[in-house]
UniProtKB/TrEMBL annotation:
This is Thioredoxin reductase. GO terms for molecular function: oxidoreductase activity. The keyword Ribosomal protein does not apply. Residues 2-142 form the FAD/NAD(P)-binding domain. PANTHER family: THIOREDOXIN REDUCTASE 1-RELATED-RELATED (PTHR48105). Keywords: Flavoprotein, Oxidoreductase. It comes from Nitratireductor mangrovi. Pfam families: Pyr_redox_2.
Amino acid sequence: MFDVIVIGGSFAGLTAALQLGRASRSVLVVDAGSPRNRTSAGAHGVAGWDGVAPGEILARFRDDLGRYPTLQSRNGEVIRVEGSRDSFVVCLADGAAIAARRIILAHGVHDILPDVPGLGDGWGTRVLHCPYCHGYEVRGEPLAVLAVHPLSAHQALMLRADWSTSITFFTGGMDGFDFDALERAGVRVDARGLKAAQPDDHGISVVLSDGSSQQYAAMFVGPRTSLAGSPAEQLGCATAEGPMGNFVRVGPMAQTTIPGVFAAGDLARPAPNINFALADGAQAGIASHASLLSSDLVPQLEIAS
């Protein structure tokens, strides 16, 4: 039996494992090999790694963890987690069943992009989610924002304020936005829908519902997210509704509502950021270690009904 199984081997999960390895605790990191930012050319706004490809950073991470003899890693897809504190069982798609005293959920969320042909081909390169993560690289260029939810208008206003004077906000017929505020800020509103997107090395061309096309340096989309199939659902961890989708509710020590289960990174926050994931992972690793020393050190997260 492992002291801790970490489900997810990206920024949050590997940081959690590092803290536990330095306490000489037995840890298994199970990772499916599909980090959320795998298509991004660089991780931006991360001190010491600004512009370095996420895959390269994670490779360095794994090298760091290799120095700790109590840490193990395994490629695999977790299909089920059963049990309770001190006696969890993690079941993998290959048939393996592995026991652990504690669980750290760090597997992220699924992004759900609008159903526009070609849009997914540019995800992480010309179809972007975050001005802080990617805006600087396309600053001053014509940019588009695709309406997905109410915060999409906020994204357009942010980009217009500090990244580009040429912002087009495609509503696709969605209502509920403060169009006066968008107009005052200098955001061009276009109600036409998108039929297709064609990203390339120079930008992204969008084909509109009337057959015309427009060219932009990038299109920003804040996608919906999903926890469907997450072990958090199976275990009964309480969730909350964020602007993009549900996320796992955690306390100040990364604890969930299920004793012995901790959560870190994108699945435990309403919005993603590598810096947050690193901090969350460190907290989850330290807190799970504290709970191994004494369960009283980490109280169960209680959610008022």
